[in-house]
Design brief:
By secondary structure, this protein is α/β, with parallel strands linked by helices. It contains 17 helices and 13 strands. Strands 1-2-4-3-5-6-7-11-10 form a nine-stranded mixed sheet, with helices on both faces.
Length: 609
């Protein structure tokens, strides 16, 4: 065990270095090597709620030389950090950037009425920027991804009521542009503003229409729709339209000013578009042309990818810290009783029946997870609760955990008990004192690990993330949603017991842990694979949302992308910790707490009174 302790010390040092490296590089990228000041604000909005935002101020933006400015927004169930490609690249180009947490998201206040105030965030950002002395209030732009563009359109409508509008330039990103008036007639609600639309070819939610028989059509057909053509024809009557194309700049004089309309059509999906160098080049090009970028940088010259890469380095460091810190704690006097006398080894498999049980149990668990996923998350999403996503994913975790427990019980009495499986020897049965110590150790590990996340946030404005998988700091009010975390305990404890006490055997050799991890993640791999292979080949999704009243299956499937890494990675973490403890509950508790915190801090919260 001394070798195990030595390895854990080395991994602990490596984990701290990786997390520090993450913070240093991420901060350097976000601040353009110190040329951009970055601040986190809590804005008391004119609507009466507190909105969190990052403010990035290039050194060229001063009261003497005010700079153009842009409000950028994330989409539904996300947070301001998700707009990092925008705020990094636009700030590099000399724009003042305000990246907001929408109401009920991130660190912004949870408001009494989501549907009234949710579209309000971008306009409140515009008002805030217009009052800053280093901002040229005649050159303010707005953009937002998905729900963020819902807020952008609402900002335009609010701005239209002003005698002197504040918004000069608008970019709609993965949402539909405004193209009618309140009576449903074709119109030009954007007036003389310059407007662009990034409409992903394989958008799962927007750019929809119907054929002559009323059958729904998805985004691949967007350019043929009234939405696209009315927008590009500046809202004129349909009889006056000319057929207009994507990637073409169309100019017309509106209210004595020349106005631009353009549609970009990257061949990607809705969520990928905010993580796309191609889409980011459109954003940089459009705002540079329409607002005038103080720093002339080519649209394709981008550095935000370095931030993303080192955010992921932080994820790796965080996982290594969990493994090594947990291992070292069991070498302390307080937790020494949780340490195995020697590293746990794989169990032998006696016969073909043992192999069959192994493979069939893994397949059954994966198949069950696939079959119940959409139904269970829809129950959570349609329930009158504060966090529908957390409830839905928690229900899925709980039910899959119960199925895993049932599978282990069946295996034990049908085969394992008769063939030498000793539950006490493998760590399934533990004294109450050890279970209590396991819970205490898990709580300490998660508290210290998240403490490092807060340090990263405080000193570097950084977190640990990859695309939509984010381990981030949070404000104290999020703790009111901790009960949702309990829903993750059944699965993560059960899968730790299954992967280690039942399935840690000689099948696959050293790859046994990877096999178990792959099957744990299989539902999160298979469902999106079916959805997108179908979409790319037929231009129709396997699971769509034909009406607003239908279950939002495309959204539920998107939730699975970070879960692929979560399920795969947590299973490997359980194996590492189990080898030195012969205790599956420590890692199960740690994983449940961390996954639960990730879930409740990266979603929308609704005020429940």
């Amino acid at each position: 065990m001394e070798k195990t302790k030595k390895t854990a010390k080395l991994l602990l040092c490596l984990s701290l270095v990786l997390m520090l490296l993450c913070g240093i590089v991420v901060n350097a990228v976000q601040t353009s090597g110190g040329k951009v000041a970055m601040k986190e604000l809590n804005i008391e909005t004119d609507s009466g709620y507190t909105m969190s935002a990052y403010l990035l101020i290039p050194e060229t933006a001063t009261a003497e030389t005010p700079a153009p400015a842009i409000v950028t927004s994330h989409g539904y169930l996300n947070n301001k950090e998700m707009a990092d490609a925008n705020y990094v690249e636009l700030a590099r180009r000399g724009f003042v950037v305000l990246s907001i947490d929408q109401p009920d998201h991130g660190d912004s206040e949870v408001t009494p009425d989501f549907f009234i105030l949710a579209p309000d965030g971008v306009y409140q950002g515009v008002l805030a920027l217009s009052r800053m002395p280093f901002v040229d209030s005649s050159r303010i732009g707005v953009t937002g991804h998905s729900m963020g563009s819902w807020s952008v359109n609402a900002a335009v409508q609010a701005d239209n009521l002003n005698e002197t509008p504040l918004i000069a330039s608008v970019l709609i990103h993965c949402n539909d542009p405004l193209y009618t008036d309140n009576d449903g007639n074709f119109a030009n609600p954007y007036g003389s503003r310059d407007v662009a639309v990034i409409s992903a070819v394989y958008d799962e939610f927007f750019g929809t229409s119907a054929d002559a028989d009323g059958n729904p059509l998805n985004s691949p057909y967007f350019m043929e729709t009234d939405t696209a053509q009315a927008f590009l024809n500046f809202g004129r009557d349909k009889a006056e339209w000319e057929v207009r194309e994507a990637y073409t700049e169309y100019y017309e004089e509106v209210d004595g000013e020349e106005a631009l309309r353009i549609v970009y059509r990257p061949p990607i999906t809705h969520p990928w578009s905010h993580f796309s160098a191609r889409s980011e080049s459109y954003i940089c090009d459009f705002f540079s042309k329409t607002l005038g970028a103080p720093n002339a940088i080519e649209p394709t010259d981008q550095v935000w990818q370095w931030k993303e890469a080192f955010n992921f380095v932080g994820v790796i460091g965080f996982v290594l810290f969990i493994c090594s810190f947990t291992t070292l704690l069991v070498f302390t006097p307080t937790f020494a009783s949780l340490r195995a006398e020697e590293p746990v080894k794989a169990m032998p498999v006696k016969d073909g029946k043992g192999k069959a049980w192994f493979w069939l149990s893994l397949l059954a668990g994966a198949a069950f997870g696939c079959l119940v996923y959409l139904k269970l998350v829809n129950i959570g999403n349609t329930s009158a609760v504060a966090q529908g996503e957390a409830l839905g994913l928690g229900l899925w975790s709980t039910v899959c955990g119960l199925f895993t427990i049932l599978s282990m019980v069946v295996y034990y009495f049908a085969y394992g008990k008769k063939n030498g499986l000793d539950l006490a020897e493998r760590g399934v049965k533990l004294p109450a004192r050890k279970l209590g110590l396991s819970a205490l150790l898990a709580l300490i590990v998660v508290t210290v690990a998240y403490g490092l996340v807060f340090v990263e946030d405080y000193f570097f404005f950084a977190d640990f993330r990859l695309w939509t998988l984010a381990i981030k700091a949070f404000e104290a009010p999020i703790l009111r949603y901790l009960p949702y975390v309990l829903l993750f305990f059944t699965y993560y404890i059960a899968i730790s017991v299954a992967a280690n006490c039942f399935n840690y055997n000689e099948i696959g050799g050293k790859a046994n842990g990877i096999i178990c991890a792959l099957f744990a993640a299989l539902p999160a791999i298979v469902i999106p694979a079916i959805q997108y292979i179908t979409y790319f080949n037929t231009k129709h999704m396997m699971w769509s949302q034909p009406t607003m009243a239908s279950p939002n299956y495309p959204m539920f499937i998107l939730w699975l992308f970070p879960i692929i890494l979560i399920l795969f990675g947590t299973t490997l973490v359980t194996r590492y910790i189990y080898k030195s403890t012969k205790n599956p509950y420590i890692a199960g508790l740690i994983n449940a707490l961390i996954v639960g915190l990730i879930t409740i801090t990266n979603t929308c919260s609704v005020f429940m009174g």
